[in-house]
Amino acid sequence: MCGIVAYIGHREACPIILKGLKRLEYRGYDSAGVALLTPEKNLNIYKKSGKVSDLETSIEGKDLHANTGMGHTRWATHGVPNDVNAHPHLSGSGEFAIIHNGIIENYASLKQALIKRGHEFKSDTDTEVLIHLIEEVYKNNDLGFEEAVRMALTQVIGAYAIVILSKQDPNYLIGAKKGSPMVIGVGENEHFIASDATPIVEYTRNVIYLHDGEIAIIKGTELTIKTIDNTIKTPYIQELEINLESIEKGGYEHFMLKEIYEQPRSILDSFRGRTHINDAMIAMAGIDKFEDKLKNVKRIIIIGCGTSWHAGLVGEYLFEDFARIPVEVEYASEFRYRNPVLDESDFVIAISQSGETADTLAALELAKSKGATIFGICNVVGSSIPRFTDAGAYTHAGPEIGVASTKAFTAQVTALILMALSIGQKRGTLSSQRLRELLIELETIPSKVERTLATDPLVKIIAEEFKNSTNALYLGRGYGFPIALEGALKLKEISYIHAEGYPAAEMKHGPIALIDEAMPVVVIATQHSYYEKVISNIQEVKARKGRVIAIATEGDEEIKNHADYVIYIPPCEESMLPLLATIPLQLLSYHIAVMRECNVDQPRNLAKSVTVE
Ligand code: F6R
Questions:
Q1: What is the 353 CA–ligand 1 centroid distance (Å)?
Q2: I need a labelling partner for 99 at 20 to 30 A (CA). Which of 235, 460, 479, 583 fits?
Q3: What are the strands of the beta sheet with 158-166, ordered from one edge?
Q4: Residue ranges per domain, the chain?
Q5: What is the pLDDT of residues 304-324, one digit of tens each?
Q6: How many contiguous H segments (helices) and E segments (strands) does the chain have?
Q7: Does 412 contact ligand 1 (Cβ within 6 A)?
Q8: Strands in 134-205 per DSSP E
Q9: Looking at residue 281, what is its pLDDT?
């Protein structure tokens, strides 16, 4: 939610900031703005509702010269998306400017108190309240800029990644973080601040991931990191792993399509180096660390949101099948506000692509406070969840930029397969022989995904046929059920067609009433344990004139007698079905969205990283 970029150094700041904002646009695209501070202490602020490209057009011909500056791309929380609510925001006197990602939860009480003391606000944002507060602390206490920021932040409840500059001092930039991500790029006599490393990677590979409660003070070319209670910290400089190529479209029309096509590689990268077929063994340091606990664990709780929650459902089936452990899969947002029964014996797994989802993080905090062991499956290295957990496994999907999750999902499922197999072996519920067979099968999956991607031309024809539908149903059983949910979510989020995923057998308990000749029904009907039952469900749909698109196993000729369209995927072990069956559903949503002229990579109202409740 919201992307921030800032620069201080010897280069022109504006092009760096605009380019960085475009890379961060996946985090929100309701409005964009920049603040540019010249050596002569002129502070120019330009902001515009809409995309970064709208801002770019609106600032053509304006004075953009500055070596210090910052920019913001917004996902609206407080106040509608318009020019006034766009960041940066100014303090009352115009001395200080701020950009902010996060939510100041006590902004209303702070604002009321400030209004009583004579402050006037231009916007509806929580962010403007914060910069007024900083200025008030600065003036009333005769403090320096840095001290004022620090003192003001002690009054704030909520989450923030902020950057503040002071008009009086063009060589001074302060960043602070709590709950929202912040990375600092350390170049030659220059510094960058951003929500993630993508705006930084082409200038320097040296970065520092700021921790919660830390403040970065950049004065000229000097960087100091302190805690909010004024303790100096030694920064830990890491080398970036991502490269420029991985964050560009590489010839594809959209990031989403590129990311769908990257799946043979991202799945491979997520198990490469962890599987040892000859020794019938899986090497996952995070799992090995808790071997004793996992051998006797009574239950696993999986937490996630959206697509990651769907991966969690796949995980439930995997852990039950291979490790014989009862599993509960929870929406993080619900779990955190219930009074869950949890203790030291529980093993909690959080799944999150971004590693920053606020609800998932809060649910983990709750689990940790009850003494549970917490484990993370995340894609973004150095993000908040992996830093918070006791252990974890990274998915190696590479940066996922399209807002709709694709390759991160299959990478999460790959990690879950490895975990379930490894724990199953340790618990003695999975023989070495069977483990070997499954690992051999896993090795074939990247090429099977490749083959599945070759269904694209047929999927495009089907998309053309159904692009004007207003509703769609997705049905599946067993491992096909989470895939039905995921297929429906993909369609609704990027094409704005209402879609529901259901366990195929549940259809007759309600949704069947919706079926008529206008209703596309996508059915996962592969030749696995539920095949005959799913065929019966298809017949029930056909009897009500529904239009069936079946995802079926190569070589199954029979299914053609039942379905209107058949998309064939290669045969596979049932537990690996999600890795293949998801692919045509991603492609279907993609093509329908493109045909409906929707913004595939940045669907309306969404953001990639949901760092607010
Ligand atoms: C859907 C999608 C979202 C995310 C959800 C959780 O395509 O991307 O549903 O899966 O917001 O995000 P992470 O995985 O970053 O915690």
A1: 7
A2: 235
A3: 89-90, 96-104, 158-166, 172-178, 214-219, 222-227, 232-233
A4: 3-246, 249-450, 454-600
A5: 999 999 999 999 999 999 999
A6: 19, 27
A7: no
A8: 158-166, 172-178, 183-187, 190-194
A9: 94
